[in-house]
Amino acid sequence: MFNFLFAMGPGPISMFITGELVPQTCRSASSVWTKKIRFLPLTSYLPVKNLTSEPIAYAIFFIIPMIVAVLVLSFLLPETKGRNVEEIREEYERKALLQ
């Protein structure tokens, strides 16, 4: 069940962002860094679970970050379907999110 829920949420979100919003020249480096950063919560989940309880640890490491990720994806990131990186970058510059 853990693997199923992780594959639905925290697992692929970092790959979506790096695959869609990062230029081709930097995509491999950004993918490596997001995988390394994504590994940190997975390694600290078990100690936190042992200190608290399984539902609390799951909420801390997966439910709360997933809610934040959905809000960020919905409101801050532009739609990328059918657009190239330059068009997306122009939209960021228009919104003054990327300076």
UniProtKB/TrEMBL annotation:
InterPro entries: GLUT, MFS_sugar_transport-like, MFS_trans_sf. The lineage of its organism: Eukaryota, Metazoa, Ecdysozoa, Nematoda, Chromadorea. This is Major facilitator superfamily (MFS) profile domain-containing protein. Keywords: Membrane, Transmembrane, Transmembrane helix. The chain crosses the membrane at residues 56-77. GO terms for cellular component: membrane. The keyword DNA repair does not apply. It is found in: Membrane. The gene is Cnig_chr_IV.g12668. The keyword rRNA-binding does not apply. It comes from Caenorhabditis nigoni. GO terms for molecular function: hexose transmembrane transporter activity. Its main location: membrane.
